[in-house]
Amino acid sequence: MPEDLKKELSRPYGFLFTDKNSLINFLLLNKGQRIITVGDVVTETLRTNGIIPFLSIIDGKTKRNIKIDLKEDHLIKIRNEKSTIRLSSIKTIKDILNENYSKKSIILVDGEEDLLVIPVVLFGRDKDIIIYGQPNAGAVVIINNQLTRIRVKQILEKFYVKNC
């Protein structure tokens, strides 16, 4: 990821929820939609409130001590370095978000998960609810659609490719 994108990507790209009860109530009103979380805190918040996302992407690192029970879900381990989106990470996310995949899953990232919101948006379905953490602010909710995909694709086109 180019350095100049960091500031652009630090802004919330969706609805910022600063109160966890408002977030939970919003999700309960939108039952039936697939929920995808990116980040340890948002994943734990939903799970402790009885909402199990279709897909959660976590790295096990956060400012707080987070405990997520990984026993019940299909666990997939990947490697994804900071400020990077590995092609193998994109493929894994694309495969899980494929229409034919029905297992609820957790991707445990060795490295950093923050930028994996990008392939989630690109390969998610319309109306998927994508939630990611906004450090020191709350949780950002994106209701996926074609316009969001176009914007994210424009951001991804600014990245450069290198061998890892």
UniProtKB/TrEMBL annotation:
Reaction(s) the record says it catalyses: 3'-dephospho-CoA + GTP = GDP + CoA + H(+)
EC number: 2.7.1.237
Gene Ontology terms describing biological process: coenzyme A biosynthetic process
Single GO MF annotation: GTP binding
Keyword Kinase: yes
Positions bound to GTP: 40-42, 59, 61, 113
UniProt signal peptide: none
Keyword annotations: Coenzyme A biosynthesis, GTP-binding, Kinase, Nucleotide-binding, Transferase
Matches recorded under Pfam families: DUF359
Matching PANTHER family: GTP-DEPENDENT DEPHOSPHO-COA KINASE, UPF0218 PROTEIN TK1697
Record's function text: Catalyzes the GTP-dependent phosphorylation of the 3'-hydroxyl group of dephosphocoenzyme A to form coenzyme A (CoA).
Family per record: Belongs to the GTP-dependent DPCK family.
Protein known as: GTP-dependent dephospho-CoA kinase
UniProt source species: Sulfurisphaera javensis
Lineage: Archaea, Thermoproteota, Thermoprotei, Sulfolobales, Sulfolobaceae
